[in-house]
Amino acid sequence: MPTSEASREPVGNRLLTALPREAYEGIRPHLEAVSLGPKDVIYEPDGPIPHVYFPAGCIVSLVAIMGDGGMFELATVGKEGMVGVPLFLETETAPFRAFTQVPGPALRLDAGVFKDAMGRSRSLVSLLHRYAQVLFNQVAWSSACGRAHSIEQRCARWLLMTHDRVDSDRFELTQEFLGQMLGVHRPRVNRAAGALQKAGAIRYVRGRITVLDRKGLEAASCERRSPPSEGEGREQPD
After folding, report:
1. pTM > 0.85: yes or no
2. 104 phi and psi, to 5 degrees?
3. Residues 79, 167 contacting (CB under 8 angstroms)
4. Which domains, ranges and CATH numbers included, belong to the chain?
5. 9-36, pLDDT tens digit by residue?
């Protein structure tokens, strides 16, 4: 489970940064800094959603659980967004699981406090309406990508979306986990990642991805991903 950290100014989350000062000050005293560990579950399918989370360095996956126990990723949420959109849409549960994909810091807000804040702040509601549309777009394009594109294209797209959300060209990622997120068996992931590595776009060693050629990875990906790239201008690793 997430562990509380000392209170600090919430930095690194773009939704919170985009809030007008008055709206932000209304929730700031109630934001709790937490550290999300690998595979921490935020909520389960059809289970309660006690908090909303604003990632500030972590990445959270929203996944559908299949009848055989397999998982298929619907969307990822990082520093651009919020986990807990069903509460904003006035529903108490969601038919999917939310859990940590990449560990790191986040800001947590009690569900009741969040609902009260929505009742007081039109600015907060307006911003979350726009974010909900962004999240819907991501889910829609992920669905289309899963039907229309090759495993290599989907793998490149997923790596780019993760790269967009972390502050490094390196991040931890096992083939087993990537296979679960793409809904394919590990040998197919191995071939796709191997092709990207052979092309010089990535280096993949012992569960760690290093993005070597961002442009090359973009060229290998399908045509759409969400949110838009934040990675242009990154310094390339040595």
Report:
1. no
2. 160, -175
3. no
4. 3-145 (2.60.120.10), 150-220 (1.10.10.10)
5. 546 899 999 999 999 999 999 999 999 9
Q: Give whole-number Cα distances, 107 to 35, 135, 203, in Å.
A: 9, 19, 32
8 pLDDT above the threshold of 80: no
Residue type, 232: E
d(CA 133, CA 150): 26
H-only helix segments in the chain: 14-18, 21-27, 85-88, 111-120, 122-148, 151-165, 175-182, 186-198, 214-220
Q: 34: closest CA among 57, 50, 18?
A: 57
**How is residue 108 written in tokens?**
């947590």
**CA gap 63, 20 in Å, rounded:** 32
